């Protein structure tokens, strides 16, 4: 070998070979370090993605629990349960729509006890109906008590939760859905720092689906969001898996399933190592010995921290956030270790916060319904083992919605915070106060029997009632508290809470601060629910019928007209009195249907009597709800035309209390009926709260004295004075006066003496079927002619 025209010396060659060898070795070392760093960073990123995937599982599970709680609020709503129990479809749809609006979700569905479709509201309803996947989801909920899952609906991923509707047994299943969209992924990114996207993949495993949610701004597929292959995205380490927690996901009615793609940018992770590689290369060129020393030093300072962090990453992936990484080496390695430690601390804090939010109310910080149920189970178990007691207080604020709507949600939140503070201060240190949702709270009182719990409930009620100074405004709010105790009222948590809730509603209905559950009230409540449900089908089953009781003219003795009375013969419970089922019909919203049945049946009977030679009028009773229907006059006139009857054959009877609900509106409806020729009467006069001035405004023709005064009519008694005065008042106002409930000859004689115009009662005839009534009228007419 020659150098500069001369032969290389051995020393030169040795130096050259040595330098060349060292340079080659350094170059190989440099290449090896580079490959090692790339592999280590890629491994670290993959482990971070695995950690992110685990956190995603918990994140989806937490959202699922929150969605289950939200669905539980809807399922526990009394009005919704009543609507489900009675089959009130409009109310069910309204409750579902309102809940979807409050939740910010897309969909709510009500299934029957066996999982059949009953009612739904929101997007993708038609796509969801008949879905085999949803049917299996509901079946899983029936087997496990509740269920959550992820489904593709309308080209979007949705998280669905299904819970039972109890009253007190399962009467249905309600499902609510929230979209897994950009906002959900943004929350996940805040927790983990990882970018993510949700794509739709074919159920056959194809990877050409479209991206429906992403945290990337201008990143992969930001423009088109379609055709993303999660296995090949340049510049990122990716991990693709099913969306649902623990890999549980569902497919919609189509052929698509939701898939989560987690992305970790490789360039950002490799950035701290670029400067280190430059240093290694510079030191390699500056000297063989120094290059070897530096290479050994760098190899040692890089490989050990990376390995330590890889071990730590695996530990974090397993859920252990306790140990910190203490890397040794260059600033970049130390910075990477510090960054890893900060990420680990942030993940631990976020996981702790998620777990806390899953069991506590976000506004007040009180335990939520799930925590309260768990605590109550524990306390009842302790009480059962020690033969002790445990009481619960169900607390609901009165007029909270009015205050919230008037003063704003911020003021309502401040009020709830103050109520929560007073509740915590009002109970003992070992008691638990929880917020169940809205303005409803629960206090669990371990070791407290009925008397001690009632005393504490009275103190809590007084504490809540004390005026509050909030945002410069003084406000006072009252509460309704229901009390139930173990073992006096129930031997398990669920029935104990249900009976405390029933006592709370009793307190609210009777305007009492505190009510204790009364044994047997649940059976009465269940009877009412059954009757409301069966009443909707009673007409179709032929269980409803009309009977008629005659009204006689006292001066002439002839039959003037008949009162139509509705009767219900229940297929299991036998005869149900109108005093019981009419209020239930008003509460369940089917009173208009019953009134239409009575009007049509009464006019049909009147037409039959008229065809048989009996020129009689027929009286029907209308409820307060009927009087608030502006379509009532048109409906009545339509029935009259259909049965070819003049309006004078119909007498409409309304009670004082019904008119007084909204006297202005009632008067307008009655005046329209009066103008059409229909006769009007005030029923049960004397039991309402109307004044003579209000009575004078009513366009009525007849005044009907309530039977409670007539049945006990004895000369010289208080009832005698009331009846005589009522007859005089009616006549002075130009009205005909009718006495109902006449059962004795003595009472009839007094009514005739006082000039009462008409009477009805069992003294003349009990209520009869239409044909039997016509026969009675013919016999009475013949007897009257002979006399």
Automatic annotation (TrEMBL):
<keyword id="KW-1133">Transmembrane helix</keyword>
<dbReference type="Pfam" id="PF14827">
    <property type="entry name" value="dCache_3"/>
</dbReference>
<dbReference type="InterPro" id="IPR001633">
    <property type="entry name" value="EAL_dom"/>
</dbReference>
<dbReference type="InterPro" id="IPR035919">
    <property type="entry name" value="EAL_sf"/>
</dbReference>
<protein>
    <submittedName>
        <fullName>EAL domain-containing protein</fullName>
    </submittedName>
</protein>
<dbReference type="InterPro" id="IPR052155">
    <property type="entry name" value="Biofilm_reg_signaling"/>
</dbReference>
<dbReference type="InterPro" id="IPR029787">
    <property type="entry name" value="Nucleotide_cyclase"/>
</dbReference>
<feature type="domain" description="GGDEF">
    <location>
        <begin position="388"/>
        <end position="529"/>
    </location>
</feature>
<dbReference type="InterPro" id="IPR043128">
    <property type="entry name" value="Rev_trsase/Diguanyl_cyclase"/>
</dbReference>
<keyword id="KW-0812">Transmembrane</keyword>
<feature type="transmembrane region" description="Helical">
    <location>
        <begin position="14"/>
        <end position="37"/>
    </location>
</feature>
<dbReference type="GO" id="GO:0003824">
    <property type="term" value="F:catalytic activity"/>
</dbReference>
<dbReference type="InterPro" id="IPR029150">
    <property type="entry name" value="dCache_3"/>
</dbReference>
<dbReference type="GO" id="GO:0007165">
    <property type="term" value="P:signal transduction"/>
</dbReference>
<dbReference type="Pfam" id="PF00672">
    <property type="entry name" value="HAMP"/>
</dbReference>
<dbReference type="Pfam" id="PF00563">
    <property type="entry name" value="EAL"/>
</dbReference>
<dbReference type="Pfam" id="PF00990">
    <property type="entry name" value="GGDEF"/>
</dbReference>
<feature type="domain" description="HAMP">
    <location>
        <begin position="300"/>
        <end position="352"/>
    </location>
</feature>
<dbReference type="InterPro" id="IPR003660">
    <property type="entry name" value="HAMP_dom"/>
</dbReference>
<feature type="domain" description="EAL">
    <location>
        <begin position="528"/>
        <end position="781"/>
    </location>
</feature>
<dbReference type="InterPro" id="IPR000160">
    <property type="entry name" value="GGDEF_dom"/>
</dbReference>
<feature type="transmembrane region" description="Helical">
    <location>
        <begin position="278"/>
        <end position="299"/>
    </location>
</feature>
<keyword id="KW-0472">Membrane</keyword>
<dbReference type="GO" id="GO:0016020">
    <property type="term" value="C:membrane"/>
</dbReference>
């Amino acid at each position: 070998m020659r150098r500069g025209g001369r032969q290389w010396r051995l020393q030169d060659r040795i130096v050259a070979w040595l330098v060349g060898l060292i340079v080659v070795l350094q170059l190989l070392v440099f290449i090896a370090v580079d490959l090692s760093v790339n592999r280590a960073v890629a491994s670290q990123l993959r482990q971070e993605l695995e950690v992110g995937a685990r956190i995603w599982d918990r994140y989806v599970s937490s959202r699922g629990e929150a969605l289950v709680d939200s669905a539980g609020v809807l399922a526990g709503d009394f009005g919704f349960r009543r609507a489900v129990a009675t089959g009130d479809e409009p109310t069910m749809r309204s409750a579902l729509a309102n809940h979807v609006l409050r939740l910010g979700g897309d969909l709510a569905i009500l299934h029957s006890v066996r999982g059949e479709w009953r009612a739904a509201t929101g997007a993708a309803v038609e796509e969801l109906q008949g879905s085999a996947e949803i049917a299996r989801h509901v079946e899983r909920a029936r087997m496990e008590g509740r269920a959550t899952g992820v489904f593709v609906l309308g080209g979007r991923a949705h998280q669905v939760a299904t819970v039972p509707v109890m009253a007190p047994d399962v009467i249905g299943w309600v499902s609510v859905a929230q979209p897994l969209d950009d906002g959900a992924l943004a929350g996940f990114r805040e927790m983990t720092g990882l970018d993510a996207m949700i794509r739709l993949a074919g159920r056959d495993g194809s990877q050409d689906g479209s991206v429906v949610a992403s945290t990337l701004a201008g990143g992969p597929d930001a423009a088109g969001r379609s055709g993303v292959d999660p296995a090949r995205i340049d510049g990122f380490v990716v991990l693709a898996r099913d969306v649902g927690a623990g890999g549980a996901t569902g497919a919609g009615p189509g052929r698509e399933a939701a898939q989560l793609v987690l992305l970790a940018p490789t360039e950002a992770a490799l950035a701290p190592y670029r400067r280190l590689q430059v240093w290694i290369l510079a030191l390699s060129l500056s000297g063989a010995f120094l290059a070897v020393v530096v290479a050994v030093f760098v190899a040692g300072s890089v490989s050990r921290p990376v390995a330590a962090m890889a071990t730590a990453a695996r530990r974090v992936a397993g859920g252990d956030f306790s140990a910190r990484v203490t890397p040794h080496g260059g600033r970049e390695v130390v910075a990477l270790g510090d960054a890893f430690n900060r990420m680990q601390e942030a993940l631990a804090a976020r996981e702790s916060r998620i777990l806390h939010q899953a069991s506590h109310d976000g506004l007040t910080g009180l335990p939520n319904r799930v925590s309260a149920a768990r605590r109550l189970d524990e306390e009842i178990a302790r009480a059962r083992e020690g033969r002790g007691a445990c009481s619960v207080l169900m607390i609901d604020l009165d007029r909270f919605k009015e205050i919230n709507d008037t003063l704003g949600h911020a003021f309502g939140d401040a009020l709830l915070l103050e109520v929560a503070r007073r509740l915590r201060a009002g109970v003992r240190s070992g008691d638990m106060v929880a917020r169940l949702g809205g303005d409803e709270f629960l206090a669990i009182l371990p070791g407290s029997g009925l008397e001690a719990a009632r005393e504490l409930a009275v103190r809590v009620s007084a504490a809540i009632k004390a005026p509050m100074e909030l945002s410069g405004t003084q406000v006072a709010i009252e509460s309704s508290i229901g009390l139930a105790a173990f073992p006096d009222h129930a031997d398990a948590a669920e029935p104990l809470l249900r009976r405390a809730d029933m006592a709370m509603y009793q307190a609210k209905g009777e305007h009492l601060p505190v009510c204790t559950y009364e044994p047997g009230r649940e059976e009465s409540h269940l009877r009412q629910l059954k009757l409301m449900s069966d009443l909707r089908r009673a007409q179709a089953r032929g269980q409803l019928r009309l009977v008629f009781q005659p009204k006689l003219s006292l001066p002439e003795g002839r039959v003037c007209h008949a009162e139509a009375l509705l009767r219900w013969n229940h297929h299991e419970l036998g005869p149900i009195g109108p005093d019981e089922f009419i209020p239930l019909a008003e509460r369940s919203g089917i009173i208009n249907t019953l009134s239409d049945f009575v009007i049509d049946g009464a006019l049909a009977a009147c037409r039959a009597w008229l065809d048989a030679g009996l020129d009689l009028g027929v009286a029907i009773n209308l409820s307060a709800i009927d009087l608030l229907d502006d379509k009532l006059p048109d409906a009545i006139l339509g029935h009259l035309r259909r049965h070819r009857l003049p309006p004078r054959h119909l007498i409409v009877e309304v009670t004082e209390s019904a008119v007084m609900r909204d006297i202005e509106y009632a008067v307008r409806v009655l005046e329209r009926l009066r103008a059409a020729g229909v006769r009007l009467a005030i029923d049960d006069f004397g039991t309402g709260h109307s004044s003579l001035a209000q009575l004078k405004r009513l366009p009525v023709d007849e005044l009907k004295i309530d039977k409670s005064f007539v049945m006990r009519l004895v000369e010289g008694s208080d009832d005698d004075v009331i009846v005589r005065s009522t007859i005089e008042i009616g006549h002075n106002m130009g009205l005909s006066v009718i006495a109902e409930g006449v059962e004795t000859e003595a009472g009839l004689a007094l009514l005739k003496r006082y000039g009462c115009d008409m009477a009805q009662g069992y003294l003349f005839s009990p209520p009869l079927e239409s044909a039997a009534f016509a026969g009675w009228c013919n016999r009475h007419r013949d007897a009257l002619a002979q006399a």
